[in-house]
Design brief:
Layout (H helix, E strand, L loop, with lengths): L7 H10 L3 E5 L6 H10 L6 E5 L9 E4 L5 H8 L7 H12 L8 E2 L8 E4 L21 E3 L3 E5 L6 E5 L1 E4 L4 E5 L6 H11 L4 E7 L3 H6 L10 H9 L4 E4 L6 E3 L4 E7 L6 E4 L14 E13 L4 E4 L14 H12 L5 E7 L4 E6 L6 H11 L6 E6 L7 H11 L2 H4 E7 L10 H5 L5 E7 L18 H15 L3
Parallel strand pairs: 1-2, 3-17, 4-12, 19-20, 20-22
Antiparallel strand pairs: 2-3, 5-16, 6-9, 7-8, 7-11, 9-10, 10-16, 11-14, 12-13, 14-16, 15-16, 18-19, 21-22
Helix pairs in contact: 3-4, 4-8
Bound molecules: flavin mononucleotide.
Length: 476
């Protein structure tokens, strides 16, 4: 059987079977599609949205949004049982991620996206609906959940990561690298240093497994294609790009092939673009230009749109980076970690432990704090608190944490230029660190035996009740 994350159409079928797909007709790609996506992502049971009959576009040229925004759909993309509770699903992913076997991609002879092609002067990006996602954005973005493929000219390694792509005309786009450390930026530099344009392909509507892989921090030399193969537990089929010779994932809905020109040669104003913090991080800035020399598309192609949105909305309903922090805690020898989670779109990290010794909670907090990108809040809770449940976490903070004794602040921690709280002058001089508040919301270790007994059900008792009675109590 085909894996549900092996292409977007199998995935959509799976989401439909789960009753979590809504079809929307007649929306305008200028702001409306982004607005509907944001409002839907704020609902407790956020559905995936499949837009068709998009204003100004041919019927069948579709956009899928909120693809993996729920825990259930993120689980499907990872090949995890979608019936698992969120923390159990993340635990299952952490377990699998630790034992994944990389599969290099497999060359095949054909791909559905080669059914239709246009080259040179016949290229017109305008046939594909590209939304203006947020009202203040600088233009339409065809790449928000698209994969940018580039090949290292020295080693042949192919990087396939998610970088946003703005459309500027019939055959011109910009690709945005957040910083020079992005692998795509490093590869582009190698070509540009020789005065050459970098061959590049943008995969629009990728397999959900590749979408997840595109977000992974993989070491230089390791391809996201191999990681997607690991998720699927089989090689990802690829075809050779007719123009660039780059490996193109065969299950992609449509592909844009071209050249990324040296930024010294040509640039276009890129952005502004709403970020995952819920703010703009910069005004329009010069971005490197991709000239699109060929486009290829399946019949009735589907764009995977994944705009950053105001938290708690996030691209993935399971906090994938929290799984890495959980593994890291264990690697460092912190025992009895019950779970790790991130809230507010990764900006708050929570770890649950079963305390075994004095200092256990702070040890976990310091390691989690060191590994928390951009976030300012790290909370450690006892084992009876579900770290994925923000209300429970707040209950622990307000009933177990004496701020004068259990809160520490670490200065100069890991953040980024996207941090809205940075002062412009600090951002300009590269001073992009922030401070982190480590909140020990555990019962004081020495008081464990004397602490007032909890009156509520234990997590296990609550789960047993849910399993037996949820059908009767859930609102219809
Ligand atoms: C939906 C989505 C959009 C993203 N957009 C960008 C972007 O525009 N620029 C960027 O540098 N990183 C972006 N990222 C983060 C990178 O894709 C991610 O950090 C990736 O691991 C970088 O790959 P690399 O290490 O091969 O450069 C985005 C991630 C997601 C999930």
């Amino acid at each position: 059987m085909d894996h549900e994350a092996s292409d977007l159409r199998h995935f959509i079928d799976a989401v439909e079977r789960l009753g979590a797909l809504r079809r929307i007709d007649g929306a305008d790609p200028a702001i409306e599609i982004g607005g509907i996506t944001e409002v839907a992502a704020g609902l407790p049971e956020c559905p995936a949205l499949l837009f068709d009959n998009i204003k100004g576009h041919q019927k069948g040229f579709r956009i899928l949004t909120n693809t993996t925004v729920s825990a259930q759909r993120a689980a499907v993309a990872l090949g995890i049982d979608p019936a698992l509770r969120p923390l159990d699903a993340l635990a299952a992913w952490k377990q699998r991620r630790g034992t994944l076997r990389m599969h290099p991609p497999e060359r095949v002879g054909s791909a559905p996206f080669l059914a239709n092609s246009a080259q040179g002067n016949a290229v017109d990006l305008g046939i594909f609906p590209a939304p203006v996602w947020h009202p203040g954005d600088g233009g339409p973005y065809i790449g928000s959940g698209s994969i940018v493929v580039m090949r290292d000219p020295d080693t042949g390694w192919q990087n396939a990561a998610i970088y946003r792509v703005q459309v500027h005309g019939r055959n011109r786009m910009t690709v945005q690298f957040d910083h020079a450390g992005r692998h795509g930026a490093g590869i582009a530099q190698k070509y540009w240093a020789k005065g050459e344009a970098a061959p590049v392909a943008v995969l629009c509507g990728p397999a959900p497994a590749l979408f997840v892989a595109g977000f992974e921090y993989l070491p230089e030399g390791v391809s996201e294609y191999d990681f997607a193969g690991a998720i699927l537990d089989r090689p990802l089929p690829v075809v050779s790009g007719p123009l660039t010779g780059l490996d193109l994932a065969a299950s992609t809905e449509f592909v844009l092939e071209g050249r990324l020109l040296p930024i010294e040669q040509e640039s276009l104003p890129e952005g502004p673009f709403g970020e995952f913090t819920g703010y703009y991080a910069a005004e329009a800035r010069p971005g490197p230009v991709m000239v699109v020399d060929a486009i290829h598309w399946r019949d009735d192609p589907i764009l995977l749109g994944s705009p950053p949105m105001k938290p708690p909305r996030f691209h993935f309903g399971l906090p994938l980076r929290a799984a890495s922090i959980w593994s890291e805690l264990e690697r460092c020898g912190v025992s009895d970690v019950i779970g790790a989670w991130q809230h507010v779109a990764q900006l708050m990290t929570v770890v649950a432990i079963r305390q075994r010794y004095a200092g256990h909670a702070r040890r976990a907090a310091m390691i989690a704090g060191a590994q928390t990108y951009m976030g300012r809040l790290v909370v450690v809770v006892d084992e009876d608190v579900d770290p994925s449940n923000l209300a429970d976490v707040m209950w622990a903070i307000t009933t177990r944490c004496e701020p004068s004794e259990q809160v520490d602040i670490v200065r100069n921690g890991w953040s980024s230029a996207l941090d809205p709280r940075l002062l412009p002058e600090d951002r300009a001089r590269g001073q992009t660190s922030n401070s982190k508040m480590l909140i020990d919301a555990c019962k004081p270790f020495a008081e464990l035996d004397r602490y007032p007994r909890v009156s509520a059900l234990t997590l296990a008792q609550a789960r047993a009740i849910e399993d037996r009675w949820m059908h009767a109590i859930r609102p219809r």
